[in-house]
Amino acid sequence: MAKEIKKIGVLTSGGDAPGMNAAIRSVVRSAISKGKKVVGIQKGYQGLLNEEIAEMQAWNVSDTIQRGGTVLRTARCEEFKTEEGQERGAEVCRKYGIDGLVVIGGDGSYRGAQALSKKGINTIGLPGTIDLDIACTDYTIGFDTAINTAMQAIDKIRDTSSSHERCSIIEVMGRNAGFIALWCGVSTGAEDILLPEKYEFKEQEIIDNIIANRKKGKTFHLIINAEGIGHSTSMARRIEAATGIETRATILGYMQRGGSPTCKDRFYASMMGAYAVELLCAGKTNRVVGQKHGEWVDFDIDEALAMQKDIPEFEYNVSKALSI
Ligand code: ADP
Ligand code: F6P
Question: Where are the domains of the chain?
Answer without folding.
Answer: 7-142+261-306, 145-257
